[in-house]
């Protein structure tokens, strides 16, 4: 991933409302959510939601599809995976240590 693209995506997610919008869409799964339902879930004005969605769309984190008169918003999972991978791929690369193991309860 190009560092400038990662920076723009992280900047977009650096706003609390956009992060909330994005997390809601991530939770919605592949089917996404109609804009009206997303607005209901978040309780924010339509113009505010539109502004924040546009920023997430421009950075490639969210896609929008028109189905008749309804706009469906979806998290772009490949973009999310790429961004998360960019952040963790080189974890401890210069430290020469093994990655931390995840402990399981039990």
UniProtKB/TrEMBL annotation:
Sorted UniProt keywords: DNA-binding, Transcription, Transcription regulation
Asked whether the keyword DNA-binding is assigned, the reply is: yes
Against Pfam families, the record matches this protein to:
HTH_20
Keyword Zinc-finger among record annotations = no
Q: What is the recorded name of this protein?
A: DNA-binding transcriptional ArsR family regulator
A GO molecular function for this record?
DNA binding
Name the InterPro entries on file. ArsR-like_HTH, HTH_ArsR_DNA-bd_dom, Metal_resp_trans_reg, WH-like_DNA-bd_sf, WH_DNA-bd_sf
Q: Could you tell me which Gene3D superfamilies the record lists for this protein?
A: Winged helix-like DNA-binding domain superfamily/Winged helix DNA-binding domain (1.10.10.10)
Q: In this protein, which residues make up the domain named HTH arsR-type?
A: 1-95
Checking NCBIfam families in the record gives: HTH_metalloreg
């Amino acid at each position: 991933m190009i560092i400038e693209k990662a920076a723009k995506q992280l900047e977009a997610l650096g706003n609390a409302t956009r992060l909330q919008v994005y997390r809601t869409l991530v939770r919605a799964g592949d089917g996404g959510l109609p804009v009206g339902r997303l607005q209901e879930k978040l309780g924010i004005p339509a113009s505010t939601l539109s502004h924040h969605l546009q920023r997430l769309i421009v950075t490639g984190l969210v896609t929008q599809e028109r189905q008749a008169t309804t706009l469906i918003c979806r998290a772009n999972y490949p973009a999310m995976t790429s961004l998360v991978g960019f952040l963790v791929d080189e974890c401890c690369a210069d430290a020469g240590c093994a990655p931390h193991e995840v402990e399981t309860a039990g």
